[in-house]
Amino acid sequence: MQILRHAGWILLVSLLLTACQWSWLRPADTRHQLIISVANQNMRLFEDGRQVASYTISTAKRGIGDMPDSYMTPGGRMEIAEKIGAGMPLGMVFKDRLPTGEVVAADAPGRDPVVTRILWLRGTEERNRNAYQRYIYIHGTPQESLLGTPASYGCIRMRSSDIAELFERVGIGAVVDVVDEADADAASRQQ
Asked: Which one of 3.30.420.240, 3.10.150.10, 2.40.440.10, 3.40.1390.20 gives the CATH number of domain 26-190?
């Protein structure tokens, strides 16, 4: 019995260690920058200063801001702090950043969960210092028909296939700039 209990603890610890991202051991992703235009409801991905992809997204219905319980998308420069959901199927529902086992199809009626992948953001400026504690993510949404319009409660929503692709390309530490359109070109030069 003692051997089984010991083996169980070893298995649990090894699973936890395998699941950990060990971000402190990996260098920050300095090759990628995401520029999110609130005005255009668009995200552009830059790799080594060159645009390599563009995605239709949704930011908050209530606009830009960072006050707790505001349901606004924080503006300014942030970074990807954590990546959650590697290997999960498209449409996997997450609750408290854990997969529930439920898979939701695109545009499933009456549903608005976080799905597919999560890129958890951390603010790097005073104006977005609450982003991490507010659980501001870039994540998949089953409400794909609303993409292109402000429709979220603070997060940046994407099509499931797009967030899965983006998740594979960017790493922890990648820069994320949420800007007004007038600032979009300046943000791409700041990296």
From this structure: 2.40.440.10
